[in-house]
Amino acid sequence: SVDVMSEFLNEIVRSYLEIQKKSKVRSRYERCEDYWNFVQTLSSSRGLESVALDESHEKLLKKELETFVNDKSFYERIGMPYRRGILLYGKPGTGKTSLINAIS
C-alpha cells in the first residue's frame, strides 16, 4: 500500500541522514528525470562564530533560530509547514552563502 511504501522510503531517508551525520560530510544532489545525481561535496560545516555579524544582528538571528527550533509544536498546532525562510541580499562576497552554511 501507499502507506507502507511511504514509511519504507522515510526509513531509508532517516538511515541515510544518520550515516551522513556520523560521517560529517554534506553533499549536494540534483534531481535529473527519475533519479538523483551527486553534484559535489559541500564545505565543512562551521558555526555562526565563523561569520562576521554585528552583535545586534547576531543576537537577533540566534534568537530567531532558537525560537524556530523550539516551536515545532506551534507549527503543528496551527497547521503550518515547519519551515523558515530568511531573505539575504548584498553584493557578491559579503558572506550570504557562508551565513546559510553556518545556519544549516
Automatic annotation (TrEMBL):
Gene3D superfamilies: P-loop containing nucleotide triphosphate hydrolases. Signal peptide: none annotated. This is ATPase AAA-type core domain-containing protein. It comes from the Eukaryota. PANTHER family: BCS1 AAA-TYPE ATPASE.
